[in-house]
Amino acid sequence: MDSLISSQERPLVETLKQQLFDPALATRLIPNQQESNDSNTLNSLKTMNDLWNALNQFLTKSEIHPDLFYVRWLRATNGDVSKSMNSIIELIKWRERIQLEKLTYSHFDSIFTKVENFVYFMGHDKDGSPAICLEIDKFVPGSLPYDQLEKVVGFVLEIVIHELRLKSQGKLERFVVLIDYYNWGLSLVDTKLDKAILGTCQNYFPERLKLACLMRAPWLFSTAYAVVKVFLDEKTTEKIAFVSESEIPTELKKRFDEQVLLDRFGGKSQKKQTIKEYLGALLGPNETLEEYYAKRSPSLQH
Question: CRAL-TRIO domain spans which residues (predicted)?
Answer without folding.
Answer: 121-273
